[in-house]
Amino acid sequence: MQTAKSRRKVAPASAENGDSGDKLDQILLSAAVANGEDLGPFIRKAFASGKPETLVHHLRHFSRSKESEIEDVCKAHYQDFILAVDDLRSLLSDVDSLKSSLSNSNSQLQSVAGPLLTSLDSFIEAKNKCQNINLAINSSKICVELMELCSRANVHIKEQNFYMALKCLEMIESEYFSETPSSTMRRMLETKIPAIRSHIERLINKEFGDWLVDIRLVSRNLGQMAIGQASASRQREEEMRMKQRQAEEQSRLSSRDCIYALEEEDDEGFAEIGEEFDLTPLYRAYHIHQTLGLEDRFKQYYFENRKLQLTSDFQVSSMTPFLESHQTFFAQIAGFFIVEDRVLRTGGQLISKMEVESLWDTAVSKMCSVLEDQFSRMQTANHLLLIKDYVSLLGVTLRGYGYPVAQLLDVLSKHRDKYHELLLSDCRKQISEVLQADRFENMYMRKEYEYSMNVLSFQIQTSDIMPAFPYVAPFSSTVPDCCRIVRSFIEDSVSFMSYGGQLDFYDVVKKYLDRLLSDVLDGALLKLISTSIHGVNQAMIVAANMSVLERACDFFFRHAAQLSGIPLRMAERSRRKFPLNKARDAAEEMLSGLLKKKVDGFMTLIENVNWLADEPPQLENEYVNEVSIFLETLLSTAQQILPSQVLRRVLQDVLSHISELIIGALYGETVKRFTLNAIMGLDIDIKSLETFAENQASLLPEADTNQLKNALAGARQMVNLLLSNHPENFLNPVIRERSYNALDYRKVVTISEKLREPSERLFGTFGSRNYKQNPKKKSLDSLIKRLKDVN
């Protein structure tokens, strides 16, 4: 206590001896310590000023000031402490008594619990044994179940039920592997499970490899079957269109007696394509690889192998002609993509649409390349058509499975011109052979089927009434033979253009049909006419053939329109002039020329005419009789062969030639002078010829009969002018246009000067000095003078 008091006395003494600065620092430090603030700034300041002793002094002063406070507190609680100690001493005696009581209780407990503990130890030992036994039983059960799973997996592998075997392996790994008590068995599983999976993978890959080999043969048969069904479907469509055309033709000819019937589709033999091939091995392999966690690797393996197969399918054998191998080639590719379409639709994600499109693009590119190469080598139209038809069937088949085939069809369209050129060349050879074999005789038909085959099938009949048989046709065998060639050309052309992606192809068919008729057939007929026709009968047959071919050409264009699927009215609007007009004109010119040569032989008798006759003749001159007999004989034969229009044109040409010969005789140097009596004889001759023309009214229309008479207009007008009382009327433009339009004024002058009057006989001027000139002669002289002035 004294020490504390002396300390409290020293502190104020030291505070009084410090200066005011130290007091301030002491106050601030005391406040900071009392408030629990950071003393770091005070420490740094003390060391910075080099007076740490001052800081220590201040802290000690603060400590001494607090000691006095502590002493005050202790004084306040001293009595309480004494009381507590007394209580503790009394508690100690109680504790000792409790301790002795507890010791007694423990001794009693030990004596009682000893046997119980011995029993408890026995119980625990028995429980541990039981647990060990249960553990052994459970381990045995696990091992038994594991062995059963292993045995089941082996059975599945033996039965090639690989999926169930893999599921067993998965169950072993997931449920039994970690719980297997046997380390030996665990090591065995660790070794065998991967080996079994590898074994299953090898087996399923072998099975898949066998399927890849088998599917190639299956694909070929599949492609042939699919293309065959497309061909059968096309055939049914063609038959249906043919029946429709027949119905339209019947309705066009007659709207009565129409028979309607329902036709049943015969679908037998057209099984579902998908039933013809089995994808089970593929899907099984895919499923197994999915189970093995090798899905992506199998997808890649499948795609690469199928791509290699497709590449091998593209190989075209150089030892076998493409015409013989093209069906197998295209059927293999068609079957390949039918299989891929099924895999794409039913195989999950085994192959993607993009991969199938990639394979198809490769196939289309290769097929186009092969077609380009093979088409460039072909020189036979039929071969090209066969391949085109099969390619178009391929396109129809694969279009049904969603594959784009426009590029293939473009290749076919690109070779359209070459095909038609080859077809025209073939037709040119056939037509040439047909024309060379023609004997220029009327075709003889004994039976109705011959008439139907050679006449009705080309619609070249002139009457719908069936003729009596045997029937002599007004044409030679050239006509139906050429018609067959042209019809075959049309059908082949339509067949090539059909199913080629172009719907409206009639204009193309018509263009090449025009070429066939106007270039090939017309040219061949022209060659025949110019080199092989040597008689009138031959010329008649050819001219008759041309008339029949003109009707046949109408049938050709209608047939092309029907096969092309356009209305006949549209074909009629696009009709052009007769494409064989050059050959027709040449045939008629040849016939007319031969007849003119015959007539020229008879017309030489005109030299026997008495041009200076004193009396007008009563009958025709000899040359007219011969010509008339020839024309009557010609007519009796020609009317059985030639159509009326051709007969009219030929007779008109012959009569016009006769008229020119008569005028030529008057105009020529042979006749120096002639009398009116001789002209009167010519008038009788011309009337006889005009009568012949008029007599044809029963065979020809009235207009044609008038045209026949007009063929003699030159001779008739010349005779009328010479016999006219006013020949100077020739100078009147109106009268000349009406009555003398066929005369050449130069010939009129020359012939008029040859006309001799009776008064101009030898020595006639000496006996008739006072003879008054004939007014007709005067008019004629005036006409001659005026015409000479004009000339």
What does this molecule look like?
- Helix 7 runs antiparallel to helix 8.
- With 791 residues, the chain is an all-alpha fold.
- The protein has 28 helices and four strands.
- It has a two-stranded antiparallel sheet with strand order 1-2.
- The longest helix has 107 residues, at 52-158.
- It has four domains: 43-159; 208-251 and 276-403, no CATH class; 417-588, Exocyst complex subunit Sec15 C-terminal domain, N-terminal subdomain (Tetracycline Repressor, domain 2, Orthogonal Bundle); 609-758 and 773-789, Tetracycline Repressor, domain 2 (Orthogonal Bundle).
- Residues 234-250 have a biased composition (Basic and acidic residues).
- It is found in: Cytoplasm, Cytosol.
- Residues 58-227 form the Exocyst complex component EXOC6/Sec15 N-terminal domain.
Count of structural domains: 4
DSSP E strands, number:
4
Helix fraction? over 70%
Query: Nearest-angstrom radius of gyration?
Result: 65 Å
Rough outline:
elongated
In a nutshell, what does this entry contain?
The chain has 791 residues and is mainly alpha-helical.
Overview features:
791 residues; mainly alpha; Tetracycline Repressor, domain 2; 4 domains; two-stranded antiparallel sheet; two-stranded parallel sheet; 1% strand; elongated
